[in-house]
Design a protein that fits this description.
Elements (H helix, E strand, L loop, with lengths): L2 H63 L2 H10 L18
Keywords: Cell cycle, Cell division
Protein name: Cell division protein FtsL
GO biological process, one term: cell division
């Protein structure tokens, strides 16, 4: 073989030999990043579940507070009464 071909062959072998550990390091870095992202996703899913449960509780509370029976009893306690039809005044605003 000529010395040029032998030189390029040696350079290629050296590059391959150096690239294998480099690829292993890159692979381990990506695996670590992936594990960190999985932990973050799991934490976000737990937060989401807690928020959904809180939301359900709040919706239940709203439906209890907005119940017709409760509103009627509060209106009675405050001395409010239903307006008669003749007491209602309609105001229309022109453009």
């Amino acid at each position: 073989m000529s010395s040029k071909k032998l030189f390029f062959k040696n350079v290629a072998v050296c590059l391959i030999a150096v690239s294998i550990p480099l690829f292993l390091v890159i692979n381990s870095i990506q695996a670590r990043r992936c594990a960190l992202l999985e932990k973050e996703i799991a934490k976000m899913e737990q937060t989401q579940s807690a928020m959904v449960e809180d939301n359900k509780t709040l919706i239940t509370g709203i439906s209890v507070l907005a119940g017709a029976d409760r509103i009627e009893s509060l209106a009675g306690e405050l001395g409010l009464k239903l307006a008669e039809t003749e007491d209602i005044i309609r105001v229309e605003m022109g453009k």
